Amino acid sequence: MTPDEFRVAGHDLIEWIADYLERVEDLPVLSQVEPGEVRAQLPPAPPEQGEAFEAILADLDRVIVPGLTHWQSPNFFAYFPANASPPSILGELLSAGLGVQGMLWASSPACTELETLMLDWMVDALGLPDRFRSGGAGGGVIQDSASSATLCAVLAARDRARRGGAGLADLRAYASEHAHSSLAKAIRIAGLQDDQLRLVATDGEHALRPDELDRAIEADREAGLVPFLVLATVGTTSSTAIDPVSAVAACIGPDVWLHVDSAFAGVAAVCEELRSVNDGLDQADSYVVNVHKWLLTNFDASLLYVADAQPLIAALGILPEYLRNAATDSGEVIDYRDWQVPLGRRFRALKLWFVLRSYGLEGLRAHIRRHVGLAHELAGWITEHPDFEVVGPVPLSLVCFRHTGGDEANQAIMDRVNRSGAVYLTHTRLDDQVVLRLAIGARTTERRHVEAAWTAITDAAPRG
Asked: pTM (2 decimals)?
């Protein structure tokens, strides 16, 4: 493809994406294809000769789009949102066009320095503690996901405990029974066994109970074991339950690493009235928040902050001869390869830079506030309906609710709604009951979409 051909193809692709964003509301949210249907429409082997870009683009509509679940639809209410705003898409395109490999400061200084600045900007935007700024012992880094960020925290905490003389088999980690499954996976990757993770009971609002945590830690210490990490969740995936971070910190002491997972909820702190989600962060060793969920920055962009970077670098830093350079040897630069598991890294900071400059903090606040307001309005409609009930608090934009007819009724409602293609919901299980989740967060979701979703839900409910 020559530069002139690239210009034409690129223009056509941008037009296609713009058209897609305009029409996505009219597409079935949940893909309607059967297993194997997409693959069956494509050749079993690669072509011997190159094909025209027009033919490739045509197959997007013919084969790929019907096999997509449309996360950018305003009628997508499943899981948590994964926003892809136009400025972010352009930033991602630019990153691909530049083809930067930002493993070292020396391999592209602008990649590292813009990322460091963006993480500091986000400290200001979210009102985070100064201990997470790059000017001191700590700082931030963009990971691909909260799962990777949590793994890095586990590895740093494990390495710190091991350097202190603890045996690997003696280590114990703790989290709420509603903590994200990425912690259990991180424990395995870190070389620990499943039973080295203690799941702590929760209260009536599904948040971790500090008294139960304290009891578990003390019992393990008395048994000669070594508590090394506690994960507190601010906004659980099931219900956005918020663990009391300050009370958790008071249970553990400085020898236990405190990691706070606020992957979804943390961006709400862009609004000052929602900054209760930051309570206790001044005592955290590490903190993760995803801008790729609710803050208009497309996947992948997960922000990991550490109060002290040295344990992280000690756990992950390796410097072979072929990566040595004068800037690294000077100690005056950040090499983000030492802050993550893989060596290579993309120029993710560009899309966050584009989003922050395009929307400004006022635009981001309006985006968050609109969704929180809609969630509270929906919760009111549910409460007023004789056959439905809200399950748990609604601190942000996720509403958990259920039909009073029981698990089978709720499962049937979700299945009917999702099969229609007009709306997409997911479920969870709270207090051993099937609970429906409606997560409001898509960039283009308006009140009419939430009203239509609620109508679809009540229409799908059993009668009498």
From this structure: 0.96
